[in-house]
Every structure is written in C-alpha cells, then in structure tokens.
Amino acid sequence: MGRPLGTRPRTWAATIAAATLLAGCSAPGTEGPGSEQSAQPPSPQATVDTTAPPAPTASETAASEPRLAPDGRPFVVTEVAEFDEPWAMAFLPGTPWLAITERTGTLHLRDQESGRTLEVSGVPEVVVGGQGGLGDIVAGPTFADDNTVYLSWIERGDGGTGAVVGRARLVVEGDTARLDGLTTVWEQTPKVSGNGHFSHRLAFSPDGQYLFVSSGDRQKMEPAQDLSNTLGTIVRLTPDGEPAPGNPFADRGAPTDQIWSYGHRNPLGLAFDEAGRLWSSEMGPQGGDEINLIEAGANYGWPEASNGSHYGGGEIPDHADGDGFAAPKVGWTPSVSPGSLMIYHGDAFPDWTGDAFVGALSGQALIRVDLDGESATEGDLWEMGQRIRAVAEAPDGSIWLLEDAPGGRLLQLTAP
Predict the structure, then answer these.
(1) Whole-angstrom distance, CA of residue 9 vs CA of residue 151
(2) Closest Cα partner for 216 from 405, 28, 25?
(3) Quick one: pLDDT at residue 312?
(4) Residue 4: pLDDT above 70?
C-alpha cells in the first residue's frame, strides 16, 4: 500500500560517495561509474590578443556554471511515498494519476495533485516468486478516449510459468478504482520452469501503431538463438496483440512472426528516442550489461557473444567486428544490473534532453547515457544508496525513481 511520507516532503541530501562502484553482478534471482569527457581542442585564431579580459561578474559566473543541490548533485531529491517492492510506474496522460505496480500483485494510483493513493481492484492473479510477479504498466495509445492501459504479469500454465500482457479499461470513481474487461493479448512462448529473466517491459511506438514487449531468456540461454520460440527476444505486436505487419520473420508462422529482434538475455528497459529509434537496457551475466539500439531482425548474440562471463568464470566470446551479432552501444563490467530505461524528452533539465537514464539495481545508482543519433556514450553516475528499479519522466519534466525494496521509496528529482 502506498504510504505518503507526510505533508512536508523531505529533501534527501546524502553526501556523494567516492566515484567507485562496488562490483555488482547480475546474479540469477537478482536483478565502474562513468564520466563524460567534455574537453575540446581550442579553436584556431588568426591573431593573439594579449589583453586580459575583464573579470566576469558574479552573475555571469553563476550563469556559466551548472546549478547544484547542496549535496553537489545537479538535482534535488524529494521523498514522496513508499510502496511494497514497486516494479514499474506510468504517468497517465491527461490525468493527475501516477500508476505504480508492486511485484507482489498490487496496482496503485497516486493523485499527483492531492497525494492520495487508491488501490486498484480487478488486477489479475499473478505468480509471485523470484523475479516474477506483477510487472509493467503503460497507457494505451487510445487512453485519452477509452482509458485503456496495458499490464504485464507472470502466470502459471503447462510446462511452468511465463510472462503475459493484458489490457483493460481503468475506471476511477470517487475513492475507488478498478480494471474493467481485462483481456490477455500476448503470452511468452513457451512456459518453462524457473523464476527469472521474464523481462516483460512494454513500450508503444511513438505513433501508437505497435506494442513492443521484451521477453527474457528465462535463464535457459540457448532458446535466445532459436527463432521457433519467443524467449530471448523483443516482439512487435499490434495493440490487439497480433504479429505486426512487416516483422522481419513474418513468413515463418507463429510465434516467429512476432519477433523483431533476438539473442537477448534479460532486457529490462525499452524506450524510444525523439527520432523514433528503439533502445533497450539489458542485464548481462557476470559483467557485460548493455545498452542496445534495437533494429529489425538483428541478433544481439546471447549466449554466443557477451562482454561478460558465465557465473563461475566460464568465458564467453566478446562481441567482435564481423561476428554477425549486433554489439552494445554502451556496456558495463563489473555489472550495474540495469533494471529500467527512460529517454528524457523534457526541458526541466535542458542539458539532458534526448539522453537515456538507467536505474541500476546492484549498482544502486542512477546512470545517464549520452545519446547522439545512433551512438551512445556513458555519462554521469549518481550513487543513490538503494537499488533503483524504475525511472520515469513526469509531464512537468521532473524525473521520478522507484526503489526496489520492501518500503521502496518513490522519489522526485527536480532542478536545484
């Protein structure tokens, strides 16, 4: 149950630790800091002026330097509420509601104007265990007209467990909220044993025509290279859950006709940039966490190639030119365990518009990745002192985080 932390939000002003990150591997059942080199060569000059320039005024100096919070970070962190193992959140367009899922099976709505929190009824029964439970939530492309939302969760069936995606109409009446007409639109194929690497992140294309779902390898590895199933893939569907027209393997029949890309391990973040390119954050094994640019029909290598190692020290060939696999744009070894991905489109932090933000689980950090067209470089890493499960952008451009823990905090990041 969401619990507001009082009427007076408390600013978190923890001191930044030294820029060294403890190695945190993406171990089964779990879900160094980067720096941005900005030095540039001096511009050529035809003549040299030896006259000393006038000293800058105090206002000019302040305007030329980034504003920092008292703890030295470029944002102020405000604690807003607490939830029980929160997993995902979505700001619902045209409403004051922030939807928040808890892995243990509860969906909350938080009124961003009043601070009240409603528990939503009609949520599906979910299988809770390991990394499984209630997962992602996104507003459907027709939400403004019909209040349709999409959710992912884990169910049990023949052969074991698997991720599913459903859609329903969200109804809020006074102090109650419910899901009406919940219908399953997609199932991970096949259901298998185990309780890890479900992935089940959701993202609609900017035009609303296609629903992308990440489907992890379920810790089985080899199925990620087998196009006869959807484990270790990212699938592209219509909003009704049908294979999208024009998918790269559309002529091979079900379920191969759903697949957009394959060779994935545990992609736990999906986000589109301003140009409509799809990016994903993905957990590697022992090392080898990745940021990938997702392209139709591409094979991302798992488990044939990875910049990490198997648990226990078994080696995996690194990504290399000419190996036939799409290499990551950014990687981390030791692991940071990327649990989510958000691409920032707002202007509250104008220097970051167009950049990607990763919530790190074992890394207990928020990481910024500088995106430049189809290229990416690791930017800032801010230690947060807790596992960060989800990152989202609010309509006002502030950045919101969810901590992955019982009593995990909902945090708002604003400009100083």
Answers:
(1) 30
(2) 28
(3) 86
(4) no
Other C-beta atoms closer than 10 Å to the C-beta of 406 total 12
Task: Give the closest residue to 360 by CA, choosing from 378, 379, 386.
Answer: 386
Residue 411 CB partners (closer than 8 Å, separation 6+)? 12, 77, 78, 79, 80, 400, 401, 402, 403
310-315 contact pairs (CB < 8 A, 24+): 310/285, 310/286, 311/25, 311/27, 311/28, 311/285, 311/286, 313/286
Q: How many CA atoms lie within 13 A of 54 on its CB side?
A: 4
DSSP 248-288: TTGGG-TTGGGEEEE--SEEEEEEE-TTS-EEEEEE-SBS-
Q: Beta 199-204 vs 76-83: how paired, if at all?
A: unpaired
pLDDT in tens, 70-97: 888 999 999 999 999 999 999 999 999 9
Q: Sheet harboring 289-294: ordered strands across?
A: 266-272, 278-283, 289-294, 330-332
Residue 390 structure tokens: 């989800």
Q: Which 3 state secondary structure label does DSSP give 131?
A: coil
Convert the pLDDT of each residue in 371-404 to its tens digit. 999 999 999 999 999 999 999 999 999 999 999 9
The enclosing H or E element of 388 equals strand 388-393
CA–CA separation, 357 and 88 (whole Å): 15
Q: CA 362, 366, 370, 375: dihedral to nearest 10 degrees?
A: 30
The catalytic site residues sit at 197
Which tokens belong to 81?
A: 């509420």
Sequence-separated (6 or more) residues with CB below 8 Å from residue 260: 212, 233, 234, 235, 236, 244, 247, 248, 294, 296, 297
- The CA distance from 394 to 325, in Å, is 36
The tens digit of pLDDT for each residue in 252-296 reads 999 999 999 999 999 999 999 999 999 999 999 999 999 999 999
Query: SS3 for 333?
Result: coil
The residue whose two tokens read 């990607």 is: 356
Encode pLDDT of 287-339 as tens digits: 999 999 999 999 999 999 999 999 988 999 999 999 999 999 999 999 999 99
What the block records as the tokens of 256 is 């191969």
For range 170-184, the mean pLDDT: 97
Query: Can you tell me whether residue 64 is helix, strand or coil?
Result: helix
Kindly report the length of the chain.
416
Residue 5's Cβ-side half-sphere holds a number of Cα atoms within 13 Å equal to 17
Q: Is pLDDT above 80 for 117?
A: yes
- For residue 281 the two structure tokens come to 């954050």
